[in-house]
Amino acid sequence: MLRLGAFVVLTALTGCGEPDGRASPLTAARGLAVTALPKASAAAVVPTNDPPPVIETCADSPAFALFVSPRKPRPGTPLRIIAVADEASAGALVVQDGSGKTVVRADERRGAGPYFWNVTVPAPAAGTLRVVLAEAQAARACKDVTIDDADEPPRAARGMWPISTAWGKATENLYAAWIEALFDAPLGEPLTFPALHEALRDPKRNLLHDHLGRGEDDAGPDAPVLDPDCADLPYALRAYFAFKMQLPFAYSSCTRGGGGRAPFCKRPRSNLEWPRHVRTDAMAGFAEFVRTTLADTVHSGTGRTAGDDDETDFYPVRLDERALRPGTIYADPYGHVLVVVKRVPQTSERAGMLLAVDGQPDGTVARRRYWRGNFLFALDPSLGSPGFKRFRPLVIERGVLRPLSNQEIAAHAEHGDHAMEQYEHGVEGFYDRVDDVLSPLPLDPKRALVETIDALEEQVKGRVVSVENGRKYRQSGGKSVEMPDGASIFETVGPWEDFSTPSRDLRLLVAIDVARALPARVERRPERYAMPPGKTAAEVRTELDATLAQELETRRFTYVRSDGSSFSLSLADVVSRAELLEVGYNPNDCPEVRWGAKEGTDEAATCKMRAPWKQLSRMRKVRAWFKERRRPARG
Description:
- Helices cover 29% and strands 17% of the residues.
- By secondary structure, the protein is α+β, with helices and mostly antiparallel strands.
- The protein folds into 3 domains: 4-147, Immunoglobulin-like (Sandwich); 169-211 and 225-315 and 322-434, no CATH class; 445-627, no CATH class.
- The longest helix has 31 residues, at 445-475.
- It is globular and about 80 Å long.
- This is Lipoprotein.
């Protein structure tokens, strides 16, 4: 039986192994793929003869943990090691051979909480290596790793995969580190994958790559496909991590809400159940589970369950630095779900940032920055409880998998972050609080405006891709796309979901409003900004209005028209066409119409396709949702 409270021994290391010197089954089973990204790898593989830390001084600290991968280290196979920590330690991750000589080390600490270090031993020889997280010649944590050709004893599986490890501080920190590494990229560069499996097959990104030692993540014509959409993406990531680490995983069948009530869940399921089809290849069976059973069960309403409901897959968290960590999800009130992948602390040159990824209907996974235009929020009981949430912790008691209640989470020493504060101060209060967490110091108002425009530009360029996908579909012979009725335009499957953009366009319209309103927000809340000395809030607003107009006019992009030619627009054009963009989401319209080109202009001259008149009539009936920047209540 696994109980969450017993898991603290995994992180409370006074020496190599458990406190009494013995390795428990859970500790021995622990591991992960820790192939570093290029920068970290270069720093990690430089041998050094620095004196080793004194192991006798290892502190008993549950806030530090060490993991190795593959699960069964073998001679000649790259050995990956990662350390995770709650504290921003100045330590280094050191690997020593049997003589105490340092083989590799990593001095670079990654993350902004939790923190992690990772190294790779390219081709370890048979024997024992000692791994130490060292700080000031003392060991924060250490572990002896045996490398040999002995096979692991077979483990009887119950359900889709066995459970040998429990969720706790160490594994949650490891999950956050894995998420951050998987979607890491320089801040100024876009990050997009055609499907999730493209990221998972990259050993420089995936810290769990080939963790089972079976080549399970290798690319090839028969490689398993993982291409979840936005609602499935958080579950696919959590399930993949649990599958590799032999952790519990649960998911529920939930309603979408209706009749003024938030979505609620009815039937929890878990990896202890057998899959529909048993596969001899574990990875192929896992991928089939994600693409069928899991995808057929979870949906966008699953993340919007009420915050005070205990029978849910997610629970709302406090708004603080610890909670806004990689792996936390954001469920917006209208059906979109994102996964936080990185928090970037504020500096003297830049506001703090939060980065997240989302999945699209075509399987594309892209990284986006947090801002009001991407992370929509509303307080309406019929929409449920949106906001930042985490997966509910799971324990096994008497052979039964059980999620912790909200009260248990709030009182738990290793969690303790269930809270309803996101819903207690109104919509403006929510955004103010998130801004305060990300940037606790006053912001330069002009820099805040420019970064807001950066985010708007990013959103516009993302829409270029979506509109182009629709153009290619129609021009490749795709038939006219059927349009659903009413609120179903936001929630459906098939070509309409793949190529229409009602949800994206609603978010873009909100983003335009946010950019327009930023100067007024500075005037409303001057204490939040580093106001120029000698100027009133009204004077600063006037200057910001001028900067906004200039930035919108000078920033340009191109889209592809019906005849294949490119046409250039400015962000100012997009903002001025906001009213026309209220009806720009139909993939049966030409790209010119979808970008708001007016009939009779040179821009619109190449348009060769319009939506059927019945669809145009339906669009007029629901236009108020876009004009008022709201999604309809369900039921």
